[in-house]
Amino acid sequence: MDECPDSFVRLDAALPTVLVAAIALVDIEGRVLIAERPAGKSMAGLWEFPGGKVEPGEIPEAALIREAREELGIDVSASCLSPFAFASHSYEKFHLLMPLYLCRKWDGLIVPQEGQRVKWVRPLDMGDYPMPPADLPLVAMLRDFI
Fold first, then answer.
1. pLDDT tens-digit series, residues 122-134
2. What distance in Å separates the CA atoms of residue 99 and residue 87, rounded to the nearest whole number?
3. Which of 62, 70, 106, 134 could hold 89 in an S-S bridge, CB 3.0 to 4.6 Å?
4. Sign of CA dihedral 95, 54, 72, 68
5. Which of 8, 101, 92 is nearest to 50 (CA)?
């Protein structure tokens, strides 16, 4: 199986799985919103898709609706969230499972609520922004799709 790329999944590790939902907000020009992780958080300074941890008893769509309001000050409808792809990545202390949803419609103007910087970026230019390792395969898929 030499044709397969390197895996970022540690099959032998007894790691807890963390479910994090992410959203690729796409504007009418085909740009995607990314947010910079603020100082004090793990991976500070890296750019990522907005979103967050799915709480116990919560489904990913509900988590994204909550996170969009908390992080960006916008309202997103579940019917406007389209499942796109997911990342499965082993970090040192946990395994991340991250579904990425596309969203082209929302209510309100995007205003960062947590002091984070945000940018609208064309998928072909996303390589110019350092991102967490789990996000990189999702960026490649977005480049092919948008």
1. 999 999 999 999 9
2. 6
3. 134
4. positive
5. 101
